[in-house]
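The instructor's notes for this session suggest beginning with a concrete chain rather than abstract definitions. Hand out the sequence below and ask the class to guess, before any prediction is shown, which regions might be ordered.
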Amino acid sequence: MYVCRGCLRNLAGAAAGALVPRTLGPLRARTVAVSSARSYSSDADSVRAAMEAALSETKSKPETKPPSREKDQANDDEVELGYDHVDPRGGALARQKYEKKLEKGVKKHLSMMPDPFHIAQYISTALSKDKFDEALMMTRMASRSKKVEVSWNHLIDYLLKKHRLHAAIKLYNEMKKRAQIPNAKTYTIIFRGCAISPHPKLAVSEATRIYNFMLKYGPLKPNTIHMNAVLDVCGRAGDLESLFTILTTANTSIRSPDAHTYTIVLNALRHDAERMRQKNQGLVDEEIRREIQANIQRARALWIDVITNWRNARLVLDEHLVVAMGRMLTLGESRDNEGVLDLLEQAMKIPRLDKPDVKLPPMPPAKPGEDSAADASPTSQGASPSSPSAPRAAPSLSNAPLYAKPSQKTLSLALTALTNLRKTSHASKYWDYLTRLHSILPDADNYYCYLRALAVGHNSEKVALLISSFPRDFLGPDTFRRGFTTCINDNLNPNAFAHACRIFDVMVSTRRYPDPMAMRLFLQASRLSTKHFYKAFLASGSRKDELEALGHHGRQLAAAVDRMWEPFRILASSLSYPTDATRSPEELLARQRNDVQEVMATARAMLAAMDRALTTEGMLGKSDAKFWKARRVVLQRAVERWIDKLYSQGKDSGGAADGAADKDEGWVALEEDDIRAKSSRQRRAVAQHA
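After discussion, reveal the predicted structure:
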C-alpha cells in the first residue's frame, strides 16, 4: 500500500489536535514499512520529522490562561466597547441573543426619531436612568445614516462620570471609526473627565496624548478651553513638568491664555508647595524653604505676564486669579506676605491700611442684609493705590471693570497675611473696610480668620466682642477654646477675666451642653489673670496689701467656679440620660467613656481651684469657706463614682443604678444648701449696707 502526500498532510493536521499522541505510533510503523518500497519515502520522512518536532514543541510549551475581558478593555483601545449587561456565562450565544433583543427595541424607537436632535435627547434621558446598553446600541445604529456626535458626547460623558476612563477612550476611538467626527465639545468632555479621574497619572498621559494629536494631526485645533482643561488635569495630578509643557503651546490667537489659565497654574504651584511642606520628603527645613521659594519665584514671573496682558487689555482680572497669587505668597516669608497687601492694592485698589498716612472715606454702618459688593466701584472707594506698578486710570465709573472686585475670599486672604506678619492690630481696619464699604457679608471662614488674627494679637476684648457677634451656626467648641486661650495669653489685661466671663455666657446660652475643655480653659483664665491684684503688694511688700490681693484672687476663683456650677451640673446629668438606646450597661459605658473622662477632668480642675481657695489664708471668709466645703464634698463624691464606673471590675448594674441615685440625691441636697447660703449672703449684704 502506497502512502501519498495528501494522506500525510491530512495525518499531520490530525496529529496537531488532541488525538495526535494516540495515532503517532501506528503512523510510524506504517511509514517505516512502506518507506523502502517508494522512491519518495524521503519526503514522507521529512514530513514525519516536522510533525514530531511540532508535537514535542506543543508538549514543552506551558499552558497560559487567556487574559480577562476587563484587562482587554483596559489595555486595548482598538476593540469596540462591549455591552455591560450581557451574562458572561452564556458566551457568544448569550451575547448574540441579548444584542438581537436590544436591537429590536432600538429599531422601533429609531423609526419614530428621524432627527439627530431628538435622538440626542433620548440618549440623555436613557443615560439618566442608567440604560447605557440601550443608548449605546441606538447611537451605533443611528451612526449608519446620521451625524450624531452629540449622542456620542453623552455616552463619553456618562462613562467619564462613572470613572471609566479606558472605556471612554475606547468609545472615542470607535466614534472616529464610524465616521462621526469629534467636535470641540467632545474634547472638552474628555479633558474635563480626565481631571476628575481617580487615576491621575493615567489621566495625564491620555489627556496629553490626545491634546498633542490635536496639535499635530487633528483637523480641529485645540482652543483656550481645551488648553485650560488639560492644564487642570496636570495640576490636579501634581505633574508640573507636563503642565508647563502644555503652557508653552499657548499663542496669541485661539489659545490665548486667560485669567482661568493663570489661576490653574498658580494653584498647581501652591498645592505643590503645600504637599512638599506636609510630606517633608526627607528634606530639612532649609531645603523645603528653598523649594517653596523657587515656586514663589515662578509664580512672580508668571504674575509679570498677567500684569502685562492686563495693561495691554488682553486679559481681564478677576478675584480668583488675585486670590490664587495671594495664597501663593502667604506660604513664603515676611517679604512675600507684605506683597499680598501690595497685590490687593494693585489689582483691587484696596489701600494699604497698615500705613500711618492712609486716608479713608467715611464708612457707613454695617448692613449685613444688603449685598452691594457687586455695585461698588474701585473709584468710589476714595482710595488711590500707592504702588508704582498699579495701572493709572481716570477717576470715572467707566474704569470700574478694570479692577477685580473683592468678596469673602479677599477678606480671608488679607486677614491671613496680617496674621502671618503679626500685624494683627490692623485686622479690624481691613475687616471694617471690606465689610462696610464693600458690603461683604462674612462667611464662616472670614470669622475664623478674623478670630485667629485677634487671638495671635492677644486682644481679648475684641475676641469677646467678635464671639458675641458670631452667627449661631458658626459657633463651635474650637471657637470658645480659642477665645479662652486668648484671655489666658492676655493675662496682663485687668479685664481679661471679664472678657472670659462674657465668652462663657455666650457658650452657655448658645449650646445645649458646654464644652468640658472650654470650661477648663475658662477656669485657667480665672487662675492666671491675677497679676494686677498683686501689683500693689509687689511694690510695697506689706502684709495688708498681700491679704487684699489674696482676697481679690479668692473672690475671682469663687466667681469662676460659681459661674461654672450650674452648666457643669447640666453637663454631668446628661451622662445619666443618654439620647441613644443601648443594649447593655457595658455598651453604654464604652460609648460614654471619653465623655465621662472629659467631665471628670473638668471636675478635678474645679476641685483644684476650690482647694487653693480653701487652703490659702486670706482668700475666703469663714462663711464662704463653709459654703464651698459643702460643694467640694458633693463634687468629690461625683468624681469617685465616675472613677468606680470607669475602672471597676465586676460591678453589676444594680450598683451603677444606686450610684446614679446617690448622685441625684447629692445634687438635690447641694441645691438646697446653695439656696440657704445665697439667702444668708443676701441678709449679710443688706445688714452691711444698712
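Then share the key points. The chain is about 70% helix and 0% strand. The first helix runs from residue 5 to 15.
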